[in-house]
Amino acid sequence: MPTFALIGYPLTHSFSQRYFTDKFAAMGLSDTHRYLNFEVADVAEFAQRRAAHPDLLGCNVTIPHKQAILPLLDEVDSVARRIGAVNTIRISEGRTTGFNTDYLGFRDDLLAQLRAQGRSTELRGTSALVLGTGGAALAVREALLDLGMNSQWVSRRGGADRITYAAIDQTVLNRHQVIINTTPLGMHPDTQAAPPLPYHLLGSGHFCYDLIYNPAETRFLQLARQRGAGAANGLGMLHLQAEASWKIWNPE
User: What InterPro entries does the annotation carry (predicted)?
Assistant: First the structure.
């Protein structure tokens, strides 16, 4: 039976298995296709799961393995290599190839959400704060480059290419009207957590996007909306990147 799977740890927050199970049902493939969860804390276990499922044709990769999976793959396409993270794996003729559909999903959904909320989609020359520096943040940064935007990473520990949360003040927020959370802060089950931002300094000119979609409205988005900022979660991104993954697994 053609098998697909999600690799990550933990996976209690993820809707991927539900999404593909529903997709298979809609396509009349429920009896012939399946989507499994490979909840593995150590990415090296990927090889064992592959061996146990010889009918495995593709995988999605989620936190915390999007970067660690790269050296375990036979090939990585040029976009994923440039980003430095993989969220989709195609298995064909015994070889694994890594791709990144996160950046496409985020880019297209960001534009769709801005459009739906009556905001400008002309983003060239504007700037965004990217909260977090993991694999998802790498994909987001690539998408922002595609849109002609500047970006500033934010992390708990500063560095040459990032600032700390403590450095975010009114001046920084005036320069960065888009704020994207790529961290797991606020994800189910720890739904009361939120990035430590000065939310009282946000206003109607800001737009906050959270890659988290479970819960549908994180504390980050709640606090942003309370200040009049635009807000959107990552469910649309999930759907778009999942469809892009399906096309990679089933090339015409």
Answer: Aminoacid_DH-like_N_sf, NAD(P)-bd_dom_sf, Shikimate_DH-bd_N, Shikimate_DH_fam
pLDDT of residue 12: 86
Please check the confidence at residue 160 and state whether its pLDDT lies above 90.
no
For residue 49, what are the domain limits?
A: 3-99
Where do we find the tokens 């150590």? Answer: 42
Rounded Cα distance, 16 and 74, in Å: 24
Q: Are strands 34-39 and 75-76 parallel, antiparallel or unpaired?
A: unpaired
Distance CA 39, CA 43 (A): 10
CB atoms within 10 A of CB 67: 16
User: Are both 118 and 47 inside the same structural domain?
Assistant: no
Q: Could you confirm whether 23 is annotated as catalytic?
A: no
3-state class percentages of the chain: helix first, strand second, coil last, to nearest 5:
35, 20, 40
pLDDT of the residue at 251: 85
Residue 248 located in a structural domain = no
Calpha distance 89→156 (Å, rounded):
31
In a domain, 131, yes or no: yes
Looking up tokens 């297209």 gives: 108
User: Is 250 within the bounds of a domain?
Assistant: no
pLDDT tens-digit map of 49-104 = 999 999 999 999 999 999 999 999 999 999 999 999 999 999 999 999 999 999 99
Q: How many CB atoms neighbour CB 251 within 10 A?
A: 7
Which stretches within 147-215 are classed as H helix? Answer: 170-175
Boundary residue ending a domain (77, 99, 121):
99
pTM above 0.90, yes or no: yes
The catalytically annotated residue of 66, 107, 176, 206 is: 66
